[in-house]
Amino acid sequence: MVRIRNLHFGYSRRVPLFENLSLTLERGHIYGLLGKNGAGKSTLLKNIVGLAFPQAGTCEVNGHPAAARLPVVLEDLFFLPEELHAPALTADQFVAHTAGFYPKFSEVQFHRYLAELEVPRQTKLPKLSFGQQKKFMIAFALAANTGLLVLDEPTNGLDIPSKVQFRKTLAGALSEDRCMIISTHQVRDLDSLIDTVLVVHNREIVLNADLDQLAERLTFGTAGPADTAGALYAEPSVRGRQVVRPNLGGSYGKVDLELLFNAVAGDNPAVVNYLNATPARHEPAV
Amino acid sequence: MSQLFSFSRFSRLFRRHTAEFLPSYAMATAVLAGGIGLVLGFVVYMNVLNTTIQGMLFMLGLLAAGALFTAGIFAQYGAPKQATVALTLPASQLEKYLVGWVYSFLIFSVVYTAAFYLVDWLMVSADDWYGRPKELFHLFDAQKIYEIYFYYAALHAGALWGAIFFEKNHFLKTAFGALVLAVVLVAANYQVVKAFAGDKLQMASPFSGITLNDATGFYRVSLPEAQAQWYILLPLVLAALLWRATYLRLTEKQL
Amino acid sequence: MEFKDNEAIYLQIAGYVSEQILRQPWGPDEKIPSVRDLASELQVNPNTVMRTYEFLQNQGVVYNKRGIGFFVSPDAEARVKQFRRERFLQQELPGFFNTISLLGVGFDELQQRYQQFQAGQAALIPATTDEKQ
């Protein structure tokens, strides 16, 4: 659905943000995009939706270059930025004037999502709180039924009940022909929704892996001070040392996304090298 | 549906722009009418509002108000939050450009002309013409006031380009830029003509004839009337070039 | 739903579905929630629920009617019990063995205490029958 090949991009000519970055996003998945501040998560998303143009390389959506901003591409994608603009219209006016641009928009679904997310209907958008505006736009984005949904920090600004509602609504909206990519700092908000994790670091995608496969190949746990043999990565924490080890025993341990991120987006390439070197094992028979 | 232009999609975009901006445009129109009323009222107070003055003020107002309005028509593309929505909205970039163009050139010209005539008519009626018959100026008489629309096209194109090129303070930067350009143009034109006309050159304006002055008197050199009427197309050519440049600038807009 | 760290999420969901089947909210040949509905309710990725349903289908606990959804198998209860039995023997029993080995609890003691337990259970039955009536 989204094909990025050898992308080269930087806001200033001399300091590139991405170099030779390649990535493919496929339908039927929810991708979690992680990266440190300034690593370029938002910029990568902008390249995907055509708000930034590759300086070299290609970035295509449905086979068309994203930078061309063709209506046929834009109709099938929806971008929800971190900072929203709420035009001076009521919710109904907004839908009346904007839904028509998205051929697959469903008003029935929209009202259902609004109800699930508990967004009031009659108010002018600028008068809603930031969180409510965000929920409104999330409902609209999902109801547009676009093939590609790009969300930049969607849970930022949502209160805890809203995050639950958001997860439920998003989980119910993923289908085989939809692709969702969510960039986030709050991995805990989304870790059971994401099925593939992408980490952008040092001007490239340093990790692009299915979560289930990661759980098969790595273990994440706490170790005593003397027990760090065979660890690919370790960091101190209140509970002891948090350790990432190769999963040699075949036991299941849930992927600790925060620990994984620290392991991968730091100076130590051990985890990344291990993942790239060893081929993925097949699923053990249950 | 074509990827470049579809009328249904364009009209949908137009309606959306209207819904979002009509309140502020209506307010701007009211302010415009008020402003015209003030100026015309002042003239009435000082003097008789004859057709020459009416025509002059009409032309000046069109250029000034038009430039001001046009400079802000693409403001949403300069503000990052709004620009995200505006650029990802599923319409072609030509359609997005045309909405701005139609509003700031076509609709503005019509609304301005109507507002000016209305206020002017009120003022002319109220004014005491000292016994002479009251006259409202004409667009299409010997004064050829309608030509101002052609000059507005060129000015509009420049303002439109500034509107999309500058992200903040559009009007100030565009006006400043235009002023500098005008000064440079006049000065350069004079120098170039002086290079082959010699010291006798009195005056040389761009797109016009030259005036020479020597011991025997003043001479004016210009194209014969039949050709001179084609001068009016020059601003249109300039307008067309800048309009196209503005459209291309929109397609290259990044955030 | 809160998920534990030590077991794959899809298996934990399978456990949840089995629980519903055993407790009879979902009876034989009854339709169970669609993949997306269950994913939404549990706030997980639908692909995970799909894995759960495929797993349960392989176990014969549910069956799939194309285009309609997933249904509880007629003999689901028996199969679930069998699956849980296996799971207990594979997952929980080793932990139990580990503990009794560590603490030195012998099989004789276990047998004695189990007989006490069974006697206690038998004593409860007339009372529970009365309660049910």
TrEMBL record, chain A:
Chain ranges of the ABC transporter domain: 2-227
Keywords (A to Z) from UniProt: ATP-binding, Nucleotide-binding, Transport
Organism: Hymenobacter coccineus
Lineage top rank: taxon: Bacteria
InterPro entries: AAA+_ATPase, ABC_transporter-like_ATP-bd, ABC_Transporter_VariousFunc, P-loop_NTPase
GO molecular function annotations of the record: ATP binding; ATP hydrolysis activity
Protein name: ABC transporter ATP-binding protein
Family annotation (PANTHER family): ABC TRANSPORTER ATP-BINDING PROTEIN ALBC-RELATED
UniProtKB/TrEMBL annotation, chain B:
Membrane-spanning segments: 21-45, 57-77, 98-119, 148-166, 175-193, 228-247
Keyword Transmembrane carried by entry: yes
Keywords of the record: Membrane, Transmembrane, Transmembrane helix
Designated name of the protein: Uncharacterized protein
Organism the protein comes from: Hymenobacter coccineus
Lineage: Bacteria, Pseudomonadati, Bacteroidota, Cytophagia, Cytophagales
TrEMBL record, chain C:
PROSITE patterns: HTH_GNTR
Keyword Protein biosynthesis recorded: no
Domain called HTH gntR-type: residue spans: 7-75
Matching InterPro entries: Tscrpt_reg_HTH_GntR, WH-like_DNA-bd_sf, WH_DNA-bd_sf
Domain of life of the source: Bacteria
Keywords: DNA-binding, Transcription, Transcription regulation
Coiled coil: none
GO molecular function, one term: DNA-binding transcription factor activity
PANTHER family: GNTR-FAMILY TRANSCRIPTIONAL REGULATOR, HTH-TYPE TRANSCRIPTIONAL REPRESSOR YTRA
Protein's name in the database: GntR family transcriptional regulator
Annotated organism of origin: Hymenobacter coccineus
